[in-house]
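Exercise 3.2. Students should predict the tertiary structure of the chain below and write it as structure tokens, then compare their answer with the key that follows.

Predict this chain's 3D structure.
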Amino acid sequence: MSATAPPHLLRNINFRWLLGGGLVSMLGDQFSMLALPWLVLSLTGDSLSLGIAVALMGAPRAVLILLGGSVADRYSPRRVQLLSKYANAVILLALAGLLMLDHASLALAYAAALALGIASAFGIPAGTAILPQAVPTQLLQKANGLQMGARQLSLLAGPLLAALVLGVHQGAQQTAMVALAAAFAIDALTFLFSAWTLRQVTLRPMAAAAAQGMWRDMAAGLAMVWRDMPLRSCYIYWALVAFFVMGPLQVALPVLARERLHGAAALGLLMGAHGAGTLAGMLASGLGGTWLRQRFGATLLLVDAIVGLLLMALGQISTAWQGAALLAVTGLLAGYVQVAIFTWIQQRVAPAMLGRAMAVFMGIFLGLAPLSAAATGALLRHLSVGELFCGGGALLLAAAVAAALWSDIPHIAGAPSVSSP
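Answer key:
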């Protein structure tokens, strides 16, 4: 490798294996993300049961993700990632087989959701640690950008492909179990394929981390976030946003598709529209960069206020195209600010503390997602899906207005100084 002329990223064989296998696996993930909620609704028709299933998948990720990162650091991220992929494949193949044998039950759906959540708690942090060992340092930023774009592409194409599979055997009230089994089996095969591609990657050795107490490191990261007032304010605010938004999108959206739009294909269209909007927003994130840096906090609150209004409108739709249009705009705004948020955190936090700062950031969403899902499922027993979306959107709008009036978030601007550990 020439020191003066670094290779083009796509000529790097390691990155090609990682990108190809990762894209296939992420597309497969969308089959299960669509099929599992539909399995629960087909068995029970109960929003609370759906909320519990989503919570069972999300809770282990929130609780175990820091442990998963520690295990990956100690025993090699590739080894942990491979074991996670194999575990996911076994779980999904077993689920598909039991559905084909007509052994579908709510307990089976719950067990599968819990097992998949545990496996992902180890796979997610291991996956983030592999790339720095696989590509040259000067290509790492571009590699992260392409992988992020690939994930959003999977959110666009995956639900549409999954909807085609689930729509083949769709009945008047529920999707046939054979179609659900096919969706889970497809996801399992993509895990096996991505495991094979990962085995083709040659990783360079990294310097061993100093032996320190895990609890002491975690406490230092939490203390750093708490001492940094703008960082603390944003993290608390993002926790409120996650609680008001994630539950309705995970639980109420499938219920909306089932009650008003009559099918899994409509749910796939809605999820695909949101993925397309998010991808477009990320691609457009370079536009207005100077203006955004000067008004980062104010822009963040303005976008959330608009999203709150869009969620309120989503509760009033009667056709799939209306929902797709609203979710496309929601995704566009979310994708745009998501890139800005990640960049802001990376600029503000010292490199030695960045991993823990991002772990806290991920923990907010992973921890609150199951709580939001369970709360949404319970509320849907007493509220209509339209009332739920209106209420969630109104609370998000109120949170943005309150933050604008009584926090320092609107005044966050420019490239902030780096915090000290």
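Discussion points: The radius of gyration is 21 Å. The chain has two domains: 8-203, 214-421.
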